[in-house]
Write a structure and sequence with these properties.
476 residues, alpha/beta, TIM Barrel, 8-stranded parallel barrel, two-stranded parallel sheet, 14 strands, globular
Length: 476
């Protein structure tokens, strides 16, 4: 029984362009959804309500993504720090609006392409493999305002053009790709990934039509990747969260099963198995959904399935069929009831390392393709001591317990490619637009009020993770 991490395991860290780069109006970059997202705890509420204007309102809101942590100008310094930790891989995304500023151009923007050339070259200088997400919670604002986001079939063409442009440009530099970040997250929060808030009366119809367009676009990207970079691996990426029934009442067990199938398996079934799952038809019937599927779509989806599943894991969800408002607890996009056996983070996300082992087993049992944990981490308030040290033992404990859970999954027979912790350097939180929700091994002197020097500082976890990588997960 092998309980060791395999040779060549891709240890590293993960980020997203819109949360670290800044340089929002440099290099001929166009406006993206991320550029109009206000900062603060009201972000999610604001983006879940119809009527969001997609306009910048500096009098009312702040826009932390505009500067973020200035990776656009400081990438060499940051990559050197990643190399010092011994990263084998760095998961990042390409900003669509750096390559096609409006999303509709026929030719890509050379300044944007050249920026990522420099980033990839810097990574390779240290032997770090880039793992690139093609679309990570941002899209050209023009495609939102003029086309209605992924509700429009025309976005398939624009996305395919974008994907082909970056495959051609980086075919010798990037061997690991993913199409859409946390594609299934749109079931609960479609604004950032799909570019719209569904009208209440048409919610399911609009949402699942948009999903279909993304599935077609993803399949076209897989097809293009295999043609342009035959030795590359291209995956899908899902937000994974095992769903537990609140108790053993059969109605709660059935409710949890239905929630888990829709959330964890629907998108993965289409992208990995290449077909819509049998359970979705009843859901479509009951919610009056009729997806416009064009001739050739299903064959395309069937013939161009992904090589692996990338997944984020932060927490499990506990569900009860008839829950009251008082019983609901917050989580990562999802909303369940409190699990009495789990503690929670500063932001109310329940901490459940065993849940990672559970979901890895469930996914591998179902799909039998390699799994890649491309996001996992603890958002917390970090305190700098008088001597300048940051003793984030709570983060070390969180990550240690989750790495131990992965090792148990390996013993269970699960095939794992790698592990890239979320926010390896402090960044702007996607859900709240805050700097104070810190995930990194590297502290960035930037604060919610916009102040800060952007100085980088190593936390205690930096040295701990460096040793984890050096021992290939043997010393935790």
């Amino acid at each position: 029984m092998n309980k060791k991490f395999p040779e060549g395991f891709l240890w590293g860290g993960a980020t997203a362009a819109n949360q670290i780069e800044g340089g929002w109006n440099e290099g001929n970059k166009g406006l993206s959804i991320a550029d109009v997202l206000p900062g603060g705890k009201e972000r999610v509420k604001l983006l879940k309500e119809p009527g969001f204007t997609f306009e910048i309102d500096n009098e009312t809101y702040t826009y932390p993504n505009h500067e973020a942590i200035d990776f656009y100008h400081r990438y060499k310094e940051d990559i050197a720090l990643f190399a010092e930790m011994g990263f084998k891989a760095f998961r990042m995304s390409i900003a669509w609006t750096r390559i096609f500023p409006n999303g509709t151009e026929s030719e890509p923007n050379e300044e944007g392409l050249a920026f990522y050339d420099r980033v990839f070259d810097e990574l390779h200088k240290y032997g770090i493999e880039p793992v690139v997400t093609i679309s990570h919670y941002e899209m050209p604002l023009t495609l939102v305002k003029e086309y209605g986001g992924w509700r429009s079939r025309e976005l398939v063409t624009f996305f395919e053009r974008y994907a082909k442009a970056i495959f051609h440009r980086y075919k010798d530099k990037v061997k690991y790709w993913m199409t859409f970040n946390e594609i299934n997250g749109a079931l609960h929060f479609p604004m950032m990934s799909m570019g719209f808030v569904p009208k209440k009366e048409e919610k399911h119809q609009e949402l699942f039509q948009a999903f279909h367009h993304q599935f077609v676009a993803s399949s076209l990207a897989v097809k293009a990747c295999r043609e342009i970079i035959p030795d590359a691996k291209i995956g899908c990426m899902i937000l994974a969260a095992p769903v537990y029934p609140y108790d053993c009442h059969p109605e709660n067990v059935m409710y949890a099963l239905q929630e888990e199938r829709l959330f964890n398996y629907f998108c993965a079934d289409v992208q990995v198995r290449g077909e819509y799952p049998s359970f979705i038809q009843r859901f479509f019937d009951e919610h009056h959904v009729t997806v416009d599927i064009r001739e050739g779509d299903l064959q395309l989806i069937k013939e161009h399935t992904v090589d692996y599943i990338g997944l984020s894991y932060y927490m499990s969800i506990t569900q009860k069929k008839d829950k009251t408002e008082q019983e609901k607890v917050p989580g990562n996009i999802l909303e369940g009831v409190k699990n009495p056996f789990l503690k929670a983070s500063d932001w109310g996300w329940e901490i459940d390392p065993t849940g990672l082992r559970i979901i890895l087993n469930r996914l591998y049992d179902r799909y039998q393709v390699p799994l890649f944990v491309v996001e996992n981490g603890l958002g917390a308030y970090d305190k700098m001591e008088e001597d300048g040290s940051i003793n984030d033992d709570y983060r070390i404990e969180y990550l240690r317990s989750h790495i131990e859970a992965m090792r148990e999954a390996l013993k269970d027979g699960v095939e794992l490619m790698g592990y890239t912790t979320w926010g390896c350097i402090d960044l702007v939180s996607a859900s709240t637009g805050e700097f104070s929700k810190r995930y990194g091994f590297i502290y960035v002197d930037k604060h919610d009020d916009g102040s800060g020097t952007l100085e980088r500082k190593k936390k205690k976890s930096f040295f701990w993770y460096k040793n984890v990588i050096a021992t290939n997960g043997e010393q935790l």
